[in-house]
Amino acid sequence: MNIVDFNNALEITGLGLAGVFIFMAVFLALIVGVDKVFPYKKEEA
């Protein structure tokens, strides 16, 4: 195993994980934003 290949693999893995967390943060912000625009109203039965 070559150390250069290992370092490249770590860099690619780090970028992939960062992408996943960025996507999750954007998705959470989208959900919170939609909840602010359209708040939940409890129905009166």
Biggest sheet architecture: none
Q: What is the 3D shape?
A: rod-shaped
Helix fraction, binned, reads: over 70%
H/E series: H
The radius of gyration is: 20 Å
Class based on secondary structure composition and strand pairing? mainly alpha
Describe the protein.
This protein is 78% helix and 0% strand. The protein has 1 helix and no strands. The chain is rod-shaped and about 70 Å long. 0% of the residues are buried. The model has no long low-confidence stretch (mean pLDDT 94).
Question: What is the strand and helix layout of this fold?
Answer:
Elements: H1 3-37
Short description:
The protein is mainly α.
Provide the descriptors you would attach to this structure in a database record.
mainly alpha, 45 residues, single chain, 1 helix
